[in-house]
Amino acid sequence: QIVKLADYRPTDFVLLGVDMTLRLFEGHTDVMTVLAFERREGVAIDAPLGLDGDGLILDSIALDGEILSPARYDATPDALVVRELPANGPFELRLENRIAPEENTELMGLYRSNGIWCTQCEAEGFRRITYFPDRPDVLAPYRVRIEAEKAVAPVLLSNGNPIETGELPEGRHYAVWDDPFKKPSYLFAVVAGDLDALHDSFVTTSGRTVALGVYTEKGRAPQAAYAMDALKRSMAWDERRFGREYDLDVFNVVAIADFNMGAMENKGLNVFNHKYVLLDQDLATDGDYAGVETVIAHEYFHNWTGNRITCRDWFQLCLKEGLTVYRDQEFSADERERTVQRIASVRRLKAHQFPEDQGPLQHPVRPAEYREINNFYTATVYDKGAEVVRMIATLLGETDFRAGMDLYFERHDGDAATIEDFIACFEEAGGLDLSQFSLWYAQAGTPTLTVTESWDPEQRQHTVSLRQSLARGAAGTGTEPMVVPVRFGLVGGNGEDRHAESEVSGAARLKGDLIVLSGGDATITFTGLSDRPYLSVLRDFSAPVMLDHEQSEAERLALGRLDPNLFNRWRALDDLIAEGLTLAARRPLGDGQPALKDAIVDALLATAGDDEIDPAFRAQALTLPAETDIARQLRDNVDPDRVHQVADAARAAIGTRGLASFERLSAERATTEPFSPDAASVGRRALANAALAYRCAATGDPAAALAQYQAASNMTDRLGALAILAHRFSGDDASRSALDDFYRRFEHDDLVLDKWFALQATAPTHDAVETVERLANHPRFTMRNPNRVRTVVGSFAAVNQVAFHRPDGAGYRWVADKLAALDRINPQIAARIATTFRAWRSFEPGRRAKLKETLRQISEIKGLSKDLKDIVDRSRK
Ligand code: ARG
Ligand code: ZN
User: Fold this and answer.
1) Residue nearest to atom 11 of ligand 1 (CA)
2) How far is 274 from 262, CA to CA, in rounded Å?
3) What is the CB neighbour count within 10 angstroms for residue 80?
4) How large is the C-alpha radius of gyration of the chain?
5) What is the CA(377)–ligand 1 centre distance, in A?
6) CB atoms within 10 A of CB 792
7) What does each C-alpha distance from 794 to 226, 311, 402, 596 come to in angstroms?
8) Gap between the Cα atoms of 841 and 828, Å rounded
9) What Cα–Cα distance (Å) separates residue 530 from each residue in 498, 513, 524?
10) Centroid of ligand 2 to alpha carbon of 160 (angstroms)
11) Where are the beta strands (DSSP E) in 298-415?
12) End-to-end CA distance of the chain
């Protein structure tokens, strides 16, 4: 069953209001739903009302207070159809059904996690609770009454404002919540249980006081302090930067141990994977802090971009997700350091979105069809979606972009909107035509931007030619030229941007430091230059393209030193390293040539050792491109062992050449300074840990890592050292004893234990296949907890290129086996992990055949879920 964008039409009946009662008992929950409807104008009198269900059994149905005769309706687990409804005026349907949250292992709809009742309804989970028009364009106010045993569930939460609580017989109690803001069912939420909470408040600019609560499992509320802090900073930032205030009297966040995704933006009641809420100062890494801050901000920002303005249908998913990722990226850039944040986002885009966009699971930012919507919460929709919004901001400039956003909020508040609605606001605010630009939403694939330059010493002019091209990929969408904003500068030998007269020919226009390329190619001639400048293009990664810029090594090394645009200063070196590694990986093993030339290593070392530069930036520079990124750039005949050897040789070479500097940088670490999660401290720790890794790569001696592991006063340093031991010295005594020690110290905390599982599952050695088999039989492993499955099976398949792709196919077989078992418990997670098979075509013939065969075997699993089948079928194409 394929759903198509082109088939959209509104419902026949308008939903006016929802009144629900959930009676929670041990083992079952009784649901009573009262839905007020009205026939939409112009809809035929005999049109039936169709509601969605998923695995439901209807117990009773009444229309305007009267039990309905069976002739008037058909109820199956998946649908309820009611006939002969009033021709005009509102009517009320009252439905009753019973569900079993305790047996819900998919974690969609209402389920229980460590005894806590909670919900996840996006995208289509609400239909697992009650029959309903479960689609995002059906908006209504909700009133929800929850009843439960007081001792088991003293806390009863739902969306909106609390309006009533009271006692019931037999030790039970109830709470009523009222959400006045119309919303679609995917934003519905209920949480009930014995929870602790951290309470605070926030006063909005217009003077309203909002009660804030972060709810956790018993005893963990103190660990929510940073999440609360991040929430208040997010609220203040959205007022400052976008003029958006919070609208209800309360805002609650709940941390749940078993959760399929990062978090969910339910109106007034965000539900989180507890990994993105809980931080214990002694147990959390800097990365964990950054994760909490980003996800808290992201879900909070959805209140306007997602909730007040939602999506007309799921094809418009990027309308809320791309925009909200853009907003959370901007928040992090403002709160931390802009260039370092941008480097991290671009790295992420290249590591996850580029491969998706260049393989069989390719789809446009706004897909035109789907079989299973859960499989479209992708890097393309989220991260490329954010890049598209960023390009709009770049094209319009700060003032007009803000005006466009203001118009969007004003015009579409309360709407279920489309990408076209969104774009129209920026066309009006910026006074420009974005119809060609909109191709970014419709055409899949990563365009290539080819840049060539030539210097004319006689005329003292520099000519820059740009060409864009887009290959047709698996999605089969168009390949028309798009609007590509290229931020640039002409850098002089003094490290300053030169000003030059310019003349454009071809399909581009020049706007300050921006070339807006709109056709296949264009040439720009810069005149009046005293000498040849260094061309710095695609500054800040101003468009999500692959850059093919023929530039000499000397020029790039110069830009790596001089470019006033810090992002491009980083990229100049990163590109040189990536190209060096890619070329080396193409050469046969043991040809005697170094993976990286000395000049490149020296440039890297100069940056790393320069105390004038921000440590966080230097740490980014020292982070080599991901091995999966090298593999993508190789395109075909990839041998992951070879890629790993090359990267490892490069690390050893860099480490050896810079040993003195790395010893200094790793020894200077501030173990004595009290832990603080601020950006400057984070940067210092990142640099010291990167230096330690190079130092161990050079010496082949685990002693320095072991010493740091033992002396560490915070988790970032301890885990940084343990990662070196577990990966570089996997199997050695030092590694084994440190891992054992880590387990003993932290086995009480599941979130820390996940790190112990993940480090071992990602050790780049062939015997990690046996390791993960052992881990999967560990008493603390369970298929029921998504985080645990992701850290063992997911990270093995997605990160461990050496073991997953072991030449004998044992890694593939192991993952396929786990997927078969997992699919029966939690198909959404199984489908997500299975996407790692999509790259099969790019490998050398032996692995290619085995990957292909494994995909075929997975496709033949009996009772395969729709989720997993969709991924496997598309990957095989
Ligand atoms: N809307 C959530 C967020 O990005 C994610 C929901 C994911 N849902 C899913 N079915 N995969 O904040
Ligand atoms: Zn989101």
Assistant:
1) 374
2) 9
3) 24
4) 28
5) 7
6) 25
7) 28, 30, 39, 31
8) 24
9) 10, 19, 17
10) 19
11) 310-311, 369-370
12) 18
Residue linked to tokens 């279920």: 416
Element (H, E) at 754: helix 750-761
Q: Quick check: CB of 266 below 6 Å from ligand 1?
A: no
Q: Please tell me the residue having the least CA distance from ligand 1 atom 5.
A: 264
CA geometry: angle at 63 spanning 61 and 69, to 5°? 60
Please tell me the pTM assigned to this model. Answer: 0.99
Asked whether 383 and 349 are in contact (CB, 8 A), the reply is: yes
Across the chain, which has 877 residues, the per-10-residue mean pLDDT values are: 97 98 99 98 97 98 98 98 95 98 98 98 99 99 99 99 98 99 99 98 98 98 98 99 98 98 99 98 97 98 99 99 99 97 98 97 98 98 99 98 99 99 99 98 98 97 98 98 98 96 97 97 97 98 98 98 98 98 90 91 98 97 96 97 96 98 84 84 96 98 97 96 98 97 98 98 98 98 98 98 98 98 98 98 98 98 97 97
Residue 446 backbone phi and psi in degrees, to 5: -100, 115
For residue 333, CA distances in Å to 247, 299, 342, 456, 467 come to 25, 17, 7, 40, 31
What is the Cα–Cα distance from 97 to 35, expressed in whole angstroms? 14
Compute the distance from residue 261 Cα to the ligand 1 centre, in Å.
6
Of 217, 299, 337, 555, catalytic: 299
Give, to the nearest 10 degrees, the angle between helix 566-586 and helix 338-348. 30
C-beta 867 within 6 A of ligand 1: no
HSE (CB half, 13 Å, CA atoms) of 346? 24
Closest CA to 264 of 122, 363, 131: 122
Compute CA distances 13 → 51, 54, 412, whole Å: 10, 20, 22
- Which run of H or of E encompasses 746? helix 733-746
* Cβ contacts of 76 within 8 Å, gap of 6 or more: 53
Provide the sign of the torsion angle of the four alpha carbons 518, 523, 529, 535, taken in this order. positive
**Distance of CA 299 from the midpoint of ligand 2 (Å):** 6
Active site residue 496: no
Say yes or no: ipTM exceeds 0.90. Answer: yes
d(CA 252, CA 215): 7
For the Cβ of 321 lying below 6 angstroms from any atom of ligand 1, the answer is yes
User: H/E element holding 31?
Assistant: strand 28-39
Both structure tokens of 174: 């109830």
DSSP for 509-573, written as a single string: EEETTEEEEEEEEEEEEEE--SSPPEEEESGGG-SS-EEEE---HHHHHHHHHH-SSHHHHHHHH
**The one-letter amino acid at 608:** A
Tokens 């581009």 belong to 508
Task: Assess whether the C-beta atom of 265 lies below 6 angstroms from ligand 1.
Answer: yes
Between CA 370 and CA 452 the distance in angstroms is 40
Residue 183, classed as helix, strand or coil, is strand
Q: Is the CB of 52 under 6 A from ligand 1?
A: no
- H or E segment to which residue 157 belongs: strand 155-158
Count of beta carbons in the 10 Å neighbourhood of residue 164: 11
Are 419 and 412 spatial neighbours (Cβ–Cβ below 8 Å)?
no
Q: What is the residue with the minimal CA distance to atom 8 of ligand 1?
A: 122
Of 402, 453, 390, nearest to 426 by C-alpha is 402
